[in-house]
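Page 47, continued from p. 46.
Same chain as before, 430 aa.
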Amino acid sequence: MPTELAIYGGPTAIKSDPGDIFDWPIITSEDEEAVLKILRSGKMSGLDVTLQFEEEFAEFHGVKYALAVNNGTASIHSAMFGCGVGIGDEVICQSPTLWASALPAFGLGATVVFADIDPHTLTLDPIDVERKITDRTKVIVAVHYFGHPTDMDSIMDIANRHGIKVLEDVSHSHGGLYKGRLVGTIGHVGAMSVMSEKALAVGEGGFLVTDDREIYERAVAFGHYERTGWMAHLVKHRVEHPDLKPFAGVPLGGFKFRMHQLSSALGRGQLKHYRDRMEEIQMSMNYFWDQLENVPGLRPHRPTEDSGSTMGGWYSPHGLYFPEEMGGISVQKFCEAVRAEGAMTNPGMSDLLHPHPVLNDADIYGHGKPTRIANSVRDLRQPQGSLPESERMANRVYSIPWFKHFRPEIIKEHAEAFKKVADNAAALEE
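Result:
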């Protein structure tokens, strides 16, 4: 039995204290004072600071409208309603993603159809997206999964030819670029979580960004009664659409989606420094992958250098695993050995949604049949085996450390843990 690998008693690859290299978000005295100011003012449920945050968020993205909400799920829910999703409509999404990318469709009387993914990007495969389009398709949800931009040129071409809206889920890719354009601004609307674990972290909250006035106004009318009622005089972009104005003062969706002003106050400071912090993260993460270049069995999950695309803040970074180059050793065993070396890693990706019982069996609203097909003219449930690439890649993906500071010595040490295990894969036993 070899002694080189720590899993078999050898010395660990990582010996240095990482310090604060993984700490996130970065909270400064400026952030603390901004939050304390809200607490002292008693305006925690107000709107003034949130409106300031929205203006700054819109400017950051170069769009006309930004709407702050209480969480990322609400942003997607609002965006779907903004796009006109309703009874009997279909929304196309990928299966490996958080449930929030897809399930808000159920609350609008619509359903979800899952398309397969590209095995290199882990995002929607445009060819399969077009296969899944019917006369009921209303929206394509383009998830920039694990920070990697979706092939937006192809998705937008398909959407425009079929008269379909595109909703970008930016929850993993704040500040990322697709061919030089900021993700979230390419489709008809962008939606995202900005919870405390995201790359842009404000505590708890979400955002919708768009240049489409109708989408924006519908999203406001759906979950922001105060903006059409008692706080309307504070709002710059008021709801003016004749189909929406008669319902002022009561949210059409029956929801209260207002962002808490403590999050808004924290968010303004985080956004102010985000570009600089994001650049340091990108430098750090790319340096990590550069250390593993040409290591058999391991491939980076990132755009090519000359693509004009970036990973933004690299939320939840992952790598691609090729067991056939590792003597057939499973990604689970590989990760176990890397953890023994002192590096953080876990196998797999988000649970696949298409075979989940909630997507196939659950009668959520008492329809008398599964909610997924309650308003459909056909049974569009997708069992195991229906999305081959999504299912195959579930065992070919692993997480990597998320470095927040550029400290080459520490990053190199962590990369060495992965390389050491890969170089000695033949010694591993399942």
